[in-house]
Amino acid sequence: MHLLRNDCEREFVQQMRRMVSEKVAPIAAEIDRKGEFPWELKKVFQEMGLLGLGVPEQYGGAHHGHIYTCLAVEEIAKACVSSSLIVQGQTLGWEPILLGGSEEQKKAYGPRVAGGEILISFALTEPGAGSDAAAMKTRAVKKGDRYIINGSKCFITNGPVCDYVTLFAMTAPDKGVGGISAFIVDTKSKGFSVACVESKMGIKGSPTGELLFEDVEAPAENLIGREGKGFKYAMQTLDRSRPVIAAQACGLAQGALKAAIDYGKQRVQFGKPIAHFQGISWMLAEMATEIEAARTLTYRAAELIDENNPQKTYLSACAKLFASDVAMKVAANALQIAGGYGYMTDFPFERMMRDAKITQIYEGTNQIMKLVIAREILQQ
Ligand code: COS
Questions:
Q1: Whether residue 129 is found in the same domain as residue 107
Q2: Are residue 294 and residue 194 in the same domain, yes or no?
Q3: Ligand 1: which residue has its CA nearest to atom 14?
């Protein structure tokens, strides 16, 4: 159940549901099986303006608030988490520019991001810098009117198909986190390459890549904000993206619950549909309750982002932690209800369970969420 706040939100969700049932749900299993980026859905989302949900109107987008990105991602993830990452990844890649970029940068990239003319990815993680994001080794050295970038980034969502990355690199290693800067890098630049496209457990339709930067030149005007501010932009971006992942987890869980209800109502054992056995109906009731709680927390966190409330770091981490754990539990229980059939690839349960796992890992592991939450409550 969604407590949508006004007609605009209700209409948007109705529009999303129609599109998802017509375009996404019928090909979700195939996207997973093929393990290919669904370009046809990218086009559908582009035409609906979904790639510009994070871009304010003055920069060519359709931003009415962070809630809309969450609503879009939740609705798509009910059918296909891989496809929801097209919208999520685009917003994530753009947000460092929104947070720290100049007017010129916002005007130059905003319309192209919003219109889906370019795909943009967020490149923070490195092989040796995952949870400890500040331990990055990628270097950007200023030479005249350009920066020369060397290093590698891993686990980059849409990295293998994107046109630009917002890249985080050390400009002053002796300053630690204060020496990290953010850049807009064109993936057509000489010296840029995709070292590998990862083979993954789930989200198989969302290409994840390792990106190499070998003497890549970025014009000085592609620095986002000021030198040394990169880590702050990265952390602020993650504060904003964690409720989106929480929304994705809510969508996935809702999709798994629906599949379990449908299955439970038609599967007859011992002379009646299994959903009418108390053991199963109570499982369904618990799953529904946990999803309601996760969704309430998620959309409250998204509201705090829109309000720029100082508690946003705290609640975003709470939402991502709680909703992703709910998604994992609900997906596992949904599969359990479907028994042997749940384990078969003819049904969506095993895909949902594989996809659920990543929500506990990316945009900060749930252990890092606990670290962030604990820091926030201890310093209050
Ligand atoms: N908003 C704004 N600034 C923030 C911030 C936030 N949410 N979190 C940290 N900062 C600032 C701090 O205020 C500090 O600034 P000053 O040096 O000016 O005081 C600076 O950033 C360093 O912060 P901190 O000391 O907390 O950094 P740590 O190295 O201890 O790392 C964690 C903090 C662990 C929270 C961070 O590394 C993290 O989020 N790791 C997970 C990364 C992640 O989510 N990766 C997912 C892949 S990217 S899709």
A1: no
A2: no
A3: 232
Which sequence positions are flagged as catalytic? 363
Token pair in block for residue 191: 């010296």
Q: For 268-306, what is each residue's pLDDT tens digit?
A: 999 999 999 999 999 999 999 999 999 999 999 999 999
Strand partners, 168: 182
CA of 338 to the centre of ligand 1 (A): 42
- Indicate if ligand 1 lies below 6 Å from the C-beta of 239: yes
Does 242 sit in the ligand 1 pocket, CB within 6 Å?
Answer: no
H helical segments located in the chain: 7-19, 28-34, 39-47, 66-79, 81-100, 103-114, 230-266, 278-307, 312-337, 339-342, 349-359, 366-379
User: Does 330 lie in the same domain as 196?
Assistant: no
What's the pTM value of the predicted model, to 2 decimals? Answer: 0.97
Which atom of ligand 1 is nearest the CA belonging to 236? 1
Query: Is the same domain home to 145 and 218?
Result: yes
Residue where a domain stops, chosen among 54, 80, 114: 114
Backbone angles phi, psi at 168, to 5 degrees: -110, 130
The protein residue whose alpha carbon is closest to atom 8 in ligand 1 is 235
Q: Report the CATH number at residue 289.
A: 1.20.140.10
361 touches ligand 1 (CB under 6 Å): no
